[in-house]
Amino acid sequence: MKLPTFKLEEYFSRTEFKAPYLMCCSDAESFSLQEILALTDDETRSIWETLRLGYTQVQGSPLLRSEIAHLYPGLQADNILCCAGAEEGVFCTFFSLLNKESHAIVVTPCYQSLHTLALSFAGSVTTIALDEAHSWKLDLDRVKDAIRPNTRVIIINFPNNPTGALLNENEVKNLIDIASSYDMYIFSDEAYRLLGSSCLTWDVPLACLYPKAISLSVMSKAFGMAGLRIGWIATQNKELLKSIEFTRYYTTICNSGLSEVVSLIALRAKDIVLKRNCEIIDHNLSILDSFFSRNHTLFSWVRPAAGCVGLVNSHIATPIDIFAQELVDNTGVLIIPGSVFNIEPI
Fold this sequence. Notes:
The chain is an alpha/beta fold. It is built from 13 helices and eleven strands.
């Protein structure tokens, strides 16, 4: 299997640690280790202070998985499998779920690996593009029309990266009805769930609503702790979860014990962590609202419904790839051109 260039990560590898002003970060503002350790309770402080640097359990520590399960009403620790960031969760799940006899439906735009790895492991893939003219709403009729006899999974990413689109409760119900009618899986990348405006209320994750749903999340985005490299898969399907675990034996095997303990501390203090991150988004959205109002002839966007990223339309004469390069060269401000997400200028 030969994988194509990962455009986003290759772009970041060239620019992210050189540019002083990052206007394209895909995660909440990071925390310092000291800030998180200040949130310990008696149990987690003792675990941290007595931690030995050995191997950890492949599935993730029982305490950590129990804490993660609190995010999924009705699920337990044995419905959770930890992984090294979200990327390993995508790789191991797709490897376990897809084969050359299967077909997958992928909603785009999305984080590239959701599409690339589906193409690598499945026999065929159909993409369903979100439409800016319809506020990036998912067209469920197109999803239904794309289904084939061998369709194995519908792959979605909401809150969406990079548009900030969000499925409402009725759309989720209708999507589940479609998948259930054809006995298909839904792979739901929910890395940005719980992150957005402070006034948002959140529906229950897909994994809690449908037996063949697989929810993916991570400490990187909503919690602002990308450096921990702790992600997880949540599903009611324990047989599939075991298959994903077996695949993980060939990748990282287990996570860093240090990262697992810090994740446990942060998740136990999730209300504090998420409140801080969502308040930053409230503040920044007000700045951006003013910016787009003042510069409406140059830039426009569909205001993100959730998450911390949005897709901006440029109306300037300079091609966006050139503009982005000139911007970082001349001002140190880094943005991501749409070409990195395979989005062509309108």
